[in-house]
C-alpha cells in the first residue's frame, strides 16, 4: 500500500467549482512545509488539475520506479531553515498540454483515482493533502471507500471543506457536508474563501461575495469554522509569476509605507532563486535585505514592520477589518486541521523530514541508489500490473531507465510476500499480463482436448462419419456466433468473470447467479475427468503402474503451473496449443496421403482408400437418434472456447488483442474440427470395435486418431498422438482451474459466494478459489474404487450440458445488450468491435442451442439401443445439468429477488471501456488504403 508511510491524510473538498479549493490546498501545503513537516499533495481534481500550475511545475515529468510513480518534488527539505520537503502528484503531469480536456466517463475516472492511491511512492510523509474534484461524483465515492477501508485508524484526519460566502456556493457545499456524513468522513472544519477584499490604498474591506455564509453553514452542521480567507492579489501574483509581490510607489496602509524602491524589486528569474515556500514565508512588505523577524511561540512569523495585530493573521476576517495580505503571510495553517483533532499533535509530528527523491530526466536519470531510497529492497514491491490500462497518451512521462534486476522467484511472484492479500484499490483485481500471443493461442487451440481427440471416436461409433461432420459443423456455426457475441461484450466490458457478470447485468441477477455457479461446477468436474484421462493415457504405454500414481503426478503438475498465476496458465496454454495444432495439422496432411493410398505397405492404406467407409458401413448410423446423440459430444469437445473472453479481463490491452483472437476461432472450427474430423470419418470405420468403451471420454485406446495411426502402420505415430492427447488433457485440466477459479472469485466479489474466495494475492492469484478447484481434482481418485465409475458417471452428468447453458446465456446477453444500447440512444458506430452477423448471429446461436437441448432431451428419454422410453437413471445421466441449473436459479431468485431486467433498467454505461476512437479511425483509414488481398487478410485474421 503506497500510503502505508503517510501519517495524516487530509481531504480538501468543495461541493462547487471555482471556490478556490486548490489555492487553499496550496497555502495549507506551503504552511505545513514551513513548520518542518514533509507534505505531499495528491491532485485528483480530474476536471481541472491546477496544482502543477500553482506550484510552477507544469513542465515536470513523472518518473516510473519499480514500485510505481515517484511524486514530483516541489522543493527539498531544509532542516536548518525549518522547511520540510514538499512533493505532489497530479493528472496534469500526464496531459500533453495545459488545455487538454480529460474526456473520461465515470468508471475510468474512478480507476485513475484508485491508481493514484495505490501506485504513487510517497515514502515517509507527515501529511498528504488530497485535492478532490468539486461535487460528489464517482471519484469521491471511490476515494472515500478506499481510504476508509484501507487506512489504518486515525490516518484519515478528515476533510477541510472550502466554500465562498454567497448562498449559491454554500447551497452546493452543503451537499459535500452531507456526503461526509453519509460516508463517515470526519469534517475538520469549513474555510470561507474569497471572504472580502482589502483595498491596498485605503484599507477598506469590501465584501465582494458577501460575508458569513461559510460560518453560518458550519453552525448549521455543527462543525468547526476555521476562518475566512480574503482575496489577496499578492498571493495571486506569487503563484502566477513566482515573484515576490510589490506595491506601487506611494502606497500606504495604517500609516506604513507599502511601496518599495527600485533596489528592492527583484527579477525572479535572475536574482531570486528561493523556493516558493521561502517567498511565501517572507513578509512581502519587507525587502529581502530586511527579513521577517523570528518565529513566535504559536508558530507565527513577526515582521519587524508589522503591527501587533498582524501577528494573528489568518483569523476570521471580522477580527482584522483593515489588515491586508493575511491570507498568504500565515506561515502555519495548522489552524485548519488542529481544531477537534488532537492526533495532529502526536509525537511523531516533530520527526525530522527526509529529502525527497529527485526527478528523473533524460539528462539526469535517477540512479539505482536513489531508487532504492524511494523503495527499499525490504519493502519494494513489483510494479502493479493490475492497475487499469489507459489508452490516453501519457505525454511527457519518463520511463525508469535503470530498473533493478529482481530475482527469478520475485519476478514469477513466488515469494512468501507475494501470497499476502492485495491492498488498496486493486485488492480484488487480477493481473493484466496476458499478451496477444496468449489470447490468440487460447482462442485457436485452448479447448482442443479429450472431447476432440477421444470423444470423437464415441461420436463416430454412435452416428457415423456424416453425422460426425454435420453435428460438429452445426456446433461450429453456433460457437462461431457465441464467440463473436462474447468478443463484442468483452471489448466493451472487460470484467472478471465475464459470462456470469453479463448475465447479471443484461438478463437477470438470479440467472447470473445460476450461470456463475453452473460454470464453476462445470470446470470443477472437468478437472478430475481430465486427470483420469491423462492417467489412462499413460497406461497406453505401461498399464502395470497404478493409476493413482499418475493422477497424483498430474495433479501436482497442475498445482505447480497455477502457482505461477495467470502467466503460468498462459504460457502452458501457448506452448501446448502449438503442440496440439501442429499434431492436428500433421494428422490432416498424413490423412490426405493415406486417403489417396500413399500409406506404407505394412498398413491398410497402401492403396487408394477414398470415401469407401461412407458407403460401407455407411455415412449415417442409428438414424435420427444417432444424429441427436452426437450433439452432446460435440458440445463437450467445444467446451472452453469461451475462455478467451474470460481471459480478456487479464489481458494487457483487450481492446487491441481480443478482436484478433476472436477471429482465430473461425480457423479452429474450419481447419481443425471440421477438416480434422472429416479425415477421421474417412479413415476409421464407425463399426470398429476399438471405438467402444465403458466411458467414451477416458478410453484412450478408443481415440480414432490413435486407431488411424495404428492401422496406417506408421511406427511410433500412434505413441506420438497419444503423447499429444496427454498434453491436451493436462491443458484442459489447467483451463478448468483457471476458468473455475476466476468465475468463483467474481461471484465472491459480488456477494454470490463466500467472501473468502474474493481473496487475490499480490501476484494476482485468486488464491482460495484456485485451491478449491484443485481440491476438486481429488475426485479423480473415486475411479479407483469398485463403485467409482458409477459415481464418476454421475459427476460427469453434472457438466454434460453445462457449456450449452453458458453459451446460450452469452447469446441472450448480447441480444439484450443490443436492445438496451439502442434504447438508450446509442448507435452501432459507437461499438468498437462488432459481431460479424450482429444480433442476428446471436439469435441463430441461441436457436441452435435450444434445438440441441431438445435433441438431447429426446435421446435422454429414449437412449440409443432402447426401443421406447428408457429408465430414469438414463435420463438424469444425460440431463442432470438442467435441474441443477434450475436449482441454482431458484436459490439466486430467493437471494436477490430482482427479476427479469427491463430494457429501460439495463445499464450500458458504467464499467464500459473508454475507446480511443482516433486510433481506431486512423487504423480503419489505413486498412482502407490496403490492396484488396491485404484487406481480406485483415478481415480473416
UniProtKB/TrEMBL annotation:
It is found in: Cytoplasm; Membrane. Residues 248-267, 348-370 are annotated as: Disordered. Keywords: 4Fe-4S, Amino-acid transport, ATP-binding, Cytoplasm, Iron, Iron-sulfur, Membrane, Metal-binding, Nucleotide-binding, Transmembrane, Transmembrane helix, Transport. The chain crosses the membrane at residues 439-460, 472-495, 516-541, 547-569, 581-604, 624-644, 665-684, 720-741, 762-782, 794-815, 835-858, 878-895. SUPFAM superfamilies: P-loop containing nucleoside triphosphate hydrolases. GO terms for biological process: iron-sulfur cluster assembly. It comes from the Eukaryota. PROSITE patterns: AMINO_ACID_PERMEASE_1 (PS00218), MRP (PS01215). It holds the Pfam family ParA. Residues 257-266, 351-364 have a biased composition (Polar residues). Signal peptide: none annotated. The keyword Iron applies. Component of the cytosolic iron-sulfur (Fe/S) protein assembly (CIA) machinery. Required for maturation of extramitochondrial Fe-S proteins. The NBP35-CFD1 heterotetramer forms a Fe-S scaffold complex, mediating the de novo assembly of an Fe-S cluster and its transfer to target apoproteins. Belongs to the Mrp/NBP35 ATP-binding proteins family. NUBP2/CFD1 subfamily. This is Amino-acid permease inda1. It comes from Amylocarpus encephaloides.
Amino acid at each position: 500500500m503506497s500510503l502505508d508511510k503517510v501519517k495524516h491524510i487530509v481531504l480538501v473538498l468543495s461541493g462547487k467549482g471555482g471556490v478556490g479549493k486548490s489555492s487553499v490546498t496550496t497555502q495549507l501545503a506551503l504552511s505545513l512545509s514551513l513548520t518542518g513537516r514533509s507534505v505531499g499533495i495528491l491532485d485528483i481534481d480530474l476536471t481541472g488539475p491546477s496544482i502543477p500550475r500553482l506550484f510552477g511545475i507544469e513542465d515536470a515529468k513523472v518518473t516510473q520506479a519499480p514500485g510505481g510513480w515517484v511524486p514530483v518534488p516541489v522543493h527539498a527539505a531544509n532542516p536548518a531553515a525549518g522547511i520540510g520537503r514538499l512533493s505532489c502528484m497530479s493528472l496534469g503531469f500526464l496531459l500533453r498540454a495545459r488545455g487538454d480536456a480529460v474526456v473520461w466517463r465515470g468508471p475510468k475516472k474512478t480507476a485513475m483515482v484508485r491508481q493514484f492511491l495505490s501506485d504513487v511512492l510517497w515514502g515517509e510523509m507527515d501529511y498528504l493533502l488530497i485535492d478532490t474534484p468539486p461535487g460528489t461524483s464517482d471519484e469521491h465515492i471511490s476515494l472515500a471507500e478506499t481510504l476508509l477501508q484501507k487506512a489504518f485508524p486515525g490516518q484519515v484526519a478528515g476533510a477541510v471543506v472550502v466554500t465562498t460566502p454567497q448562498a449559491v456556493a454554500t447551497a452546493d457545499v452543503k451537499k459535500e457536508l452531507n456526503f461526509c456524513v453519509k460516508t463517515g468522513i470526519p469534517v475538520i472544519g469549513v474555510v470561507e474563501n474569497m471572504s472580502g477584499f482589502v483595498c491596498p490604498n485605503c484599507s477598506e474591506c469590501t465584501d465582494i461575495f458577501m460575508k458569513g455564509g461559510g460560518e453560518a453553514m458550519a453552525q448549521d452542521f455543527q462543525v468547526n469554522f476555521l476562518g475566512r480567507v480574503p482575496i489577496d492579489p499578492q498571493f495571486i501574483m506569487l503563484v502566477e509569476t513566482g515573484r515576490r509581490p510589490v506595491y506601487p510607489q506611494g502606497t500606504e496602509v495604517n500609516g506604513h509605507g507599502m511601496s518599495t524602491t527600485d533596489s528592492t524589486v527583484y527579477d525572479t528569474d535572475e536574482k531570486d532563486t528561493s523556493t516558493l515556500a521561502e517567498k511565501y514565508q517572507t513578509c512581502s512588505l519587507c525587502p529581502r535585505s530586511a527579513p521577517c523577524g523570528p518565529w513566535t511561540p504559536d508558530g507565527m512569523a513577526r515582521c519587524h514592520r508589522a503591527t501587533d495585530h498582524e501577528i494573528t493573521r489568518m483569523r476570521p476576517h471580522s477580527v482584522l477589518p483593515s489588515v491586508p495580505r493575511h491570507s498568504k503571510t500565515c506561515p502555519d495553517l495548522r489552524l485548519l486541521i488542529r481544531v477537534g483533532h488532537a492526533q495532529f499533535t502526536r509525537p511523531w509530528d516533530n520527526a525530522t523530514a527526509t529529502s525527497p527523491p529527485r526527478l528523473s530526466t533524460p539528462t539526469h536519470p535517477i540512479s539505482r541508489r536513489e531508487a532504492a531510497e524511494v523503495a527499499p529492497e525490504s519493502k519494494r514491491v513489483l510494479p502493479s500490473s493490475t492497475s487499469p490500462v489507459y489508452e490516453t497518451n501519457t505525454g511527457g512521462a519518463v520511463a525508469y531507465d535503470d530498473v533493478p534486476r529482481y530475482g527469478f522467484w520475485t519476478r514469477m511472484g513466488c515469494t512468501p510476500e507475494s501470497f499476502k492479500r492485495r491492498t488498496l484499490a486493486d485488492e480484488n483485481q487480477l493481473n493484466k499480463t496476458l499478451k496477444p500471443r496468449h489470447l490468440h493461442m487460447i482462442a485457436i487451440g485452448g479447448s482442443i482436448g479429450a472431447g476432440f481427440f477421444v470423444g470423437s471416436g464415441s461420436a463416430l461409433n454412435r452416428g457415423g462419419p456424416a453425422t460426425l461432420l454435420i453435428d460438429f459443423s452445426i456446433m461450429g456455426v453456433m460457437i462461431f456466433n457465441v464467440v463473436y457475441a462474447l468478443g463484442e461484450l468483452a471489448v466493451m466490458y472487460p470484467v472478471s468473470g465475464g459470462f456470469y457478470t453479463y448475465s447479471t447485468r443484461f438478463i437477470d441477477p438470479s440467472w447470473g447467479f445460476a450461470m456463475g455457479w453452473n460454470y464453476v461446477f462445470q470446470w470443477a468436474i472437468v478437472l478430475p475427468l481430465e486427470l483420469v484421462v491423462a492417467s489412462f493415457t499413460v497406461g497406453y504405454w505401461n498399464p502395470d503402474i497404478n493409476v493413482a500414481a499418475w493422477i497424483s503426478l498430474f495433479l501436482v503438475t497442475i498445482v505447480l503451473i497455477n502457482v505461477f498465476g495467470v502467466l503460468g496458465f498462459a504460457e502452458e496454454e501457448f506452448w501446448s496449443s502449438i503442440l496440439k495444432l501442429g499434431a492436428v495439422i500433421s494428422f490432416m496432411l498424413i490423412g490426405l496421403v493415406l486417403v489417396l493410398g500413399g500409406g506404407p505397405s505394412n498398413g491398410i492404406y497402401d492403396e487408394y482408400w477414398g470415401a469407401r467407409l461412407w458407403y460401407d458401413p455407411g455415412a449415417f448410423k442409428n438414424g435420427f437418434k444417432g444424429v441427436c446423440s452426437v450433439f452432446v459430444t460435440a458440445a463437450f469437445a467445444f467446451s472452453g472456447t469461451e475462455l478467451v473472453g474470460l481471459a480478456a479481463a487479464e489481458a494487457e490491452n483487450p481492446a487491441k488483442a481480443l478482436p484478433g483472437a476472436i477471429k482465430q476461432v473461425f480457423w479452429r472450427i474450419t481447419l481443425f474440427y471440421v477438416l480434422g474430423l472429416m479425415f477421421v470419418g474417412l479413415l476409421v470405420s464407425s463399426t470398429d470395435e476399438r471405438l467402444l468403451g465403458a466411458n467414451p471420454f477416458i478410453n484412450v485406446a478408443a481415440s480414432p486418431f490413435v486407431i488411424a495411426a495404428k492401422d496406417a502402420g506408421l511406427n511410433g505415430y500412434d505413441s506420438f498422438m497419444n503423447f499429444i492427447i496427454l498434453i491436451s488433457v493436462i491443458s484442459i485440466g489447467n483451463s478448468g482451474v483457471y476458468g473455475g477459479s476466476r468465475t468463483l472469485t467474481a461471484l465472491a466479489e459480488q456477494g454470490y459466494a463466500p467472501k473468502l474466495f474474493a481473496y487475490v494475492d499480490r501476484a494476482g492469484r485468486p488464491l482460495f478459489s484456485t485451491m478449491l478447484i484443485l481440491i476438486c481434482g481429488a475426485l479423480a481418485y473415486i475411479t479407483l474404487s469398485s463403485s467409482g465409475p458409477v459415481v464418476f458417471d454421475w459427476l460427469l452428468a453434472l457438466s454434460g450440458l453445462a457449456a450449452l447453458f453458458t453459451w446460450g446465456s452469452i447469446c441472450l446477453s448480447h441480444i439484450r445488450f443490443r436492445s438496451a444500447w439502442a434504447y438508450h440512444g446509442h448507435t452501432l458506430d459507437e461499438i468498437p468491435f462488432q459481431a460479424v452477423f450482429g444480433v442476428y448471429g446471436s439469435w441463430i446461436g441461441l436457436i441452435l442451442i435450444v434445438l440441441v437441448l431438445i435433441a438431447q432431451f429426446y435421446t435422454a428419454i429414449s437412449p440409443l439401443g432402447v426401443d421406447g422410453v428408457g429408465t430414469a437413471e438414463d435420463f438424469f445421466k444425460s440431463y442432470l445439468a438442467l435441474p441443477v441449473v434450475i436449482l441454482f436459479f431458484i436459490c439466486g431468485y430467493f437471494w436477490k429477488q430482482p427479476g427479469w431486467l427491463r430494457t429501460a433498467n439495463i445499464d450500458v454505461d458504467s464499467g464500459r471501456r473508454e475507446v480511443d476512437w482516433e486510433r481506431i479511425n486512423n487504423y480503419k483509414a489505413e486498412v482502407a488504403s490496403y490492396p484488396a488481398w491485404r484487406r481480406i487478410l485483415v478481415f480473416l485474421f
